[in-house]
Amino acid sequence: MRRSVRFGTMVALLGMSLGVVVAPASAQTMTFTAEGTVSFVDDDLAGSFSLGDDFRVTYSFESETSDIEPSPTSGRYPAITDLGVSVGGYAASASSGVIFVDHNAFGRDAYQFSAGGLSAGGPASEADVGPYRLRLVVGLLVAPGGSVFSSDALPTAPPDPSDFSLGRSLLLLFEDPRTRETAGVLADWAVTSGPPANSPPDCSAAGASATILWPPLHWLAPIDVLGVTDPDGDPVSVTVDAVFQDEPVMGKGSGRTAPDAVGVGGETVQVRVERSGGGDGRVYHIEFTASDGQGESCSGEVTVGVPHDLDHPQPVDGGALFDSTAP
């Protein structure tokens, strides 16, 4: 029975014990996927796994899990709440796991996830691996100390395997419960990815909640910006940044009321329903920013008009010339 020294070395690096995740209420659930191809199969597992098989692990974790063994150079986070692994036709899952981070510990930077207590399933089951039972899934990345991490904080961006020149391994470790003999499947960790990149909101279809205001009796009408969407389904918040108009705020024949817009900086702005009696109607230009709460935003402008009279229901836009908030 052939054994790889690499398995013993890798398991020795773990210092593994699993714990219950206790995360702050503000934590976000992150999902990473590690992928590679099988580069080594122990002889006793050769009937179930083959060189070149796809090796894929997807795991979710809470981003603000506390370090349960604080030290100056390493962090241990029982953060994983869900893990699934597939190798060829074999599949397994776990409901907890640990992420380890070393920052210049023993002269190296290292990132590692591990999970035990796995249950197997899929086209190939535990019975298809002879006397062996799945014990552990491990992913390990190693780099020279200080070359990747600036601290031992829990990373919330997926690690890039190309940054880790000293080791990039994925391991599926089996154990014979009678003899405690181990056998493993090893893969070269080639790709790590997080969830799809967050996309900004789309302001292209934005419009005002009212486009024509009447009658021109100098009252303030509330206006909301509608029609902003988000391709990721994120809730969008809109902030009005500025309001301009094509007539002077205190222009002749407009009633000499000011300001002509209030509420800039909020979600709803109010504009004054008036226009110059000697003009061709008034147009307000409402500038806004829409944010998705995930760091992305878009900006745009909507217009609202006050016609000169009902015989000419469409005001003529002379441009965003005057600040409507001026006193």
Keywords:
2 domains; mainly beta; Immunoglobulin-like; single chain; 43% strand; 8-stranded antiparallel barrel
How does this structure look, described?
The protein is mainly β and 327 residues long. It has two domains: 5-193, no CATH class; 207-323, Immunoglobulin-like, CATH 2.60.40. 3% of the residues lie in helices and 43% in strands. The chain is built from one helix and 18 strands. The protein has one helix spanning 5-14, and strands at 29-41, 54-62, 74-87, 90-94, 97-105, 108-116, 119-121, 133-144, 167-175, 182-193, 207-208, 220-226, 237-245, 261-262, 268-272, 282-291, 297-306, 322-323. The strands form three sheets. The protein has an eight-stranded antiparallel β-barrel with strand order 1-2-3-5-6-8-9-10. The protein has a four-stranded antiparallel beta sheet with strand order 11-12-15-14, with no helix packed on it. β3 and β4 form a beta hairpin. The chain is elongated. The relative contact order is 0.13. Mean pLDDT is 88; it is low at 1-26 and 122-127.
Q: In percent terms, what proportion of residues is strand?
A: 35-45%
**How many beta strands in the DSSP annotation?**
18
CA distance, first residue to last residue: 88 Å
**What number of structural domains do the residues give?**
2
* Overall average pLDDT: 88
Low-confidence stretches: 1-26, 122-127
Q: What's the story with the biggest beta sheet?
A: 8 strands, antiparallel, barrel
Order of helices and strands: HEEEEEEEEEEEEEEEEEE
Q: Can you tell me the overall shape?
A: elongated
Helix % is under 10%
Rg of Cα set: 31 Å
